[in-house]
């Protein structure tokens, strides 16, 4: 301290100019340090925001976002499942008076094997000539040996005794080649590839091991292409039915085609399914699919903005919203998200009870829920005040995740609560998501499609199989009828 005092006095003794020079130098040093502090403060703010984003990403899991359970990483202990289902109080297993599915004896077996009694187990005398008093029955259910059945078609050839003309009978249209596979084998091959999702080579391997036929992947592909061509009218009819339906569920998911990420779109009801692959995810694909441009009912979706380009009623998947509300509650600890979560579940319970009685919700009950909705929105606005723009950059001011979700609940109230006003509208979009899920399984098993045509063939055949399953029609019979040119077509309800 004394040294600094002496240095300052020495400068002072040198005169005013020396003092001015010293002060100016100090000002420059302070200004430079202030600039460094401001830069460091800005960098700290930037890093804090980055850390917050990373923490939010780490906190997202399958319970509070749309991420699948397979992506739940960085968790030392698996969190307890927070199921919304309440305990029923019933014991595990089959309930009283449940019919069950026990294997039961048939009245007329295909084969009977008699186990004879030759001698008495007590005195060992012969019982060969003694009349049988009764039988104890046991039945074994099994499949017979599987082998190809060859049917030979012979066309008669006759010569006319009057003119000598040589005449030959005409073969059936189904018999076109000297040797060929029949409809049952072709339908089984299509079933293995397009329903059980086995790749071509594994399908051929299974047929060789089980049926003993050396079928090639090219033969399987031809059978699939034939089925695809025969289902052209079916696909158009399904699209027409979906257009006339009061409610449809729509979704889209990534699909690898030609080594690139493209998109699979689905539109469905509980009786019909239509898949359509396309390079785009948005309205170009939806227009090409040909359903939404002519649809006037209610489309249920997960808030992908392209759906709002169509002039129809919309319903947002509330299962997605519940997960997002859970994320805001856990990560930001906001009251409005917890209250909104409770409200949506309560509304769903009321709607389910009313739907079971085939009625409609009373106007006063609807008003009660809507008033509750408005009160929660008011709490959310207080917890998420409008941010002021800090810069003159063009575009919208960046907002928090909680504020973005709140804005969705403010702007799309009718679409969120549409299931409360129209009981035909489901609470969530699970139907479309279930239809999409098996297509994702196909990608995991068989990988990418080598061409768009291959994706189109698979999607149309899979649309048919999904529709058949929803209508509880035997799949193998339905595929065989489709290849024969008589596909199943549901009736619109």
The low-confidence parts are: none
Strand order of the largest sheet: 5-4-3-6-7
Taking all Cα atoms into account, the compactness measure Rg is 36 Å
Total strands: 7
Domain Transposase IS66 zinc-finger binding: 119-164
Domain Transposase IS66 central: 180-455
Biased composition (Basic residues): 81-90
Organism: Methanococcoides burtonii (strain DSM 6242 / NBRC 107633 / OCM 468 / ACE-M)
Which SSEs are present, and which pair or pack?
Elements: H1 2-13, H2 16-59, E1 157-159, E2 166-168, H3 183-194, H4 200-211, H5 217-230, H6 232-244, E3 247-257, E4 260-268, E5 273-278, H7 283-289, E6 298-301, E7 313-316, H8 318-332, H9 335-356, H10 363-383, H11 401-411, H12 413-416, H13 418-421, H14 430-446, H15 452-470, H16 475-483
Parallel strand pairs: 3-6, 6-7
Antiparallel strand pairs: 1-2, 3-4, 4-5
Helix pairs in contact: 3-5, 3-16, 5-15, 8-9, 9-10
Biased composition (Basic residues): 81-90
Domain Transposase IS66 zinc-finger binding: 119-164
Domain DUF6444: 34-102
Structure described in brief:
With 493 residues, the protein is of the alpha/beta class. 48% of the residues lie in helices and 8% in strands.
Based on the model shown, name its key terms.
single chain, alpha/beta, five-stranded mixed beta sheet, two-stranded antiparallel ribbon, 7 strands
Give an overview of the whole structure.
The structure is a single chain. The protein has 493 residues and is α/β, with parallel strands linked by helices. It is built from 16 helices and seven strands. It has helices at residues 2-13, 16-59, 183-194, 200-211, 217-230, 232-244, 283-289, 318-332, 335-356, 363-383, 401-411, 413-416, 418-421, 430-446, 452-470, 475-483; strands at 157-159, 166-168, 247-257, 260-268, 273-278, 298-301, 313-316. Strand 4 (260-268) and strand 5 form a beta hairpin. Helix 3 (183-194) crosses helix 5 (217-230), helix 5 crosses helix 15 (452-470) and helix 8 packs antiparallel against helix 9 (335-356). The protein starts with a helix and ends in a 10-residue tail after the last helix. This is Transposase. Residues 57-104 are annotated as: Disordered.
């Amino acid at each position: 301290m004394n040294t600094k005092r002496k240095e300052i006095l020495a400068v002072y003794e040198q005169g005013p100019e020396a003092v001015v020079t010293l002060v100016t130098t100090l000002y420059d040093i302070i200004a430079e340090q202030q600039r460094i502090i401001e830069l460091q403060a800005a960098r700290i703010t930037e890093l804090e925001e980055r850390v917050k984003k990373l923490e939010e990403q780490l906190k997202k899991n399958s319970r509070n976002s749309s991420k699948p359970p397979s992506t739940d990483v960085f968790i030392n202990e698996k969190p307890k499942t927070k199921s919304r289902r309440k305990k029923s109080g019933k014991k595990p297993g089959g309930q009283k008076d449940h019919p069950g599915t026990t294997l039961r004896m048939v009245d007329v077996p295909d084969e009977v094997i008699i186990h004879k009694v030759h001698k008495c187990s007590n005195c060992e005398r012969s019982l060969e000539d003694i009349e049988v008093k009764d039988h104890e029955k046991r039945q074994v259910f099994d499949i017979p040996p599987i082998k190809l059945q060859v049917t030979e078609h012979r066309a008669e050839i006759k010569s006319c005794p009057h003119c000598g003309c040589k005449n030959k009978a005409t073969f059936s249209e189904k018999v076109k080649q000297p040797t060929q596979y029949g409809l049952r084998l072709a339908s089984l091959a299509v079933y293995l590839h397009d329903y059980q999702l086995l790749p071509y080579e594994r399908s051929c391997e299974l047929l060789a091991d089980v049926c003993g036929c050396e079928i090639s992947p090219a033969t399987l592909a031809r059978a699939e292409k034939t089925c695809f061509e025969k289902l052209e009218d079916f696909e158009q009819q399904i699209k027409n039915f979906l257009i006339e339906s009061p409610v449809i569920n729509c979704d889209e998911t990534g699909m690898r085609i030609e080594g690139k990420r493209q998109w699979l779109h689905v539109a469905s009801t509980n009786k019909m399914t239509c898949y359509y692959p396309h390079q785009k995810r948005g309205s170009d694909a939806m227009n090409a699919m040909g359903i939404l441009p002519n649809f006037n009912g209610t489309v249920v979706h997960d808030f992908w903005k392209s759906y709002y380009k169509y002039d129809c009623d919309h319903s947002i998947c509330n299962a997605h919203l519940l997960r997002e509300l859970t994320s805001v509650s856990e990560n930001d600890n906001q009251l409005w998200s917890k209250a909104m979560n409770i409200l949506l579940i309560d509304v769903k319970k009321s709607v389910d009870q009313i739907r079971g009685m085939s009625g409609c919700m009373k106007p006063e009950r609807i008003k009660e829920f809507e008033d509750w909705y408005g009160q929660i929105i008011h709490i959310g606005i207080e917890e998420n005040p409008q941010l002021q723009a800090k810069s003159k950059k063009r575009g919208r001011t960046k907002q928090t995740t909680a504020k973005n979700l709140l804005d969705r609940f403010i702007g799309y109230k009718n679409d969120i609560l549409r299931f409360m006003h129209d009981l035909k509208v489901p609470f969530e979009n699970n139907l479309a998501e279930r239809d999409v899920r098996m297509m994702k399984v196909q990608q995991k098993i068989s990988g990418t499609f080598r061409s768009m045509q291959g994706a189109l063939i698979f999607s149309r055949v899979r649309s048919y199989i999904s529709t058949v399953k929803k209508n509880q029609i035997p799949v193998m019979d339905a595929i065989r009828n489709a290849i024969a040119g008589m596909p199943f077509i549901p009736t619109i309800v």
